[in-house]
Structures are given as C-alpha cells and as structure tokens.
Design a protein that fits this description.
Helix content: 55-70%
Number of helices: 4
Shape: globular
Order of helices and strands: HHHH
Number of domains: 1
Largest sheet: none
Strand content: under 5%
Length: about 100
C-alpha cells in the first residue's frame, strides 16, 4: 500500500507500487482513490511531456513544476464536475454538451 511504503521509506515497496501504477493489466480490485490518482498523474505527465501534442513537450519545466500544473488541471476538472456545479452554465453537463 502506498501509505505504508511512505511511512517505512521502503525503496522496494515503492518500486512495486510504481510497477502497479504503470502496468495497465494490474488487478485494481483493492485500489483506493490514491492509487487511481497516482496512475492518472503518472500517465498524464508521461503523455504531456513526451507526446508531440503534449502540454509540456519542449518546455523547460522541472518535473515538480509539471506535476503541480497537472494537479491543478485535475482539481479544476474535479471542481467543474462537482455536484454543486452540475447544473450551472459552465459546469458538469454543459461541458459534455448537455443542457
């Protein structure tokens, strides 16, 4: 588990979790929100720094700066899809073309 590894500072444990996050065929039945957020961050950052159309491609950003920017994008999207925003003109359903 991610939190147990962090508490112990165990390098092997971190490597095992990183492998789970990267592997698309990992069994996710016991995952928590933290695991899914870690997977999102890994793949979103990888895509946006390596892909030709990536947000951070050929930009002189440190990894931590890219992580902060990507986390900000995630939080903005979560806010727009929050229950309190669903029926507002610029939130939830409006983003998906709904009325």
């Amino acid at each position: 588990d991610i939190s147990r590894c962090r508490l112990r500072g165990n390098t092997k444990c971190h490597a095992g979790i990183q492998g789970e996050i990267v592997n698309p065929y990992t069994n996710t039945s016991d995952w928590t929100e933290v695991h899914y957020l870690a997977r999102f961050m890994y793949h979103a950052l990888r895509h946006n720094t390596r892909h030709i159309d990536g947000l951070f491609k050929n930009r002189p950003l440190r990894s931590r700066e890219a992580e902060i920017l990507m986390w900000s994008v995630l939080k903005a999207i979560q806010h727009l899809h929050a229950p309190s925003q669903i029926n507002r003109p610029r939130g939830g359903r409006a983003l998906l073309g709904g009325a």
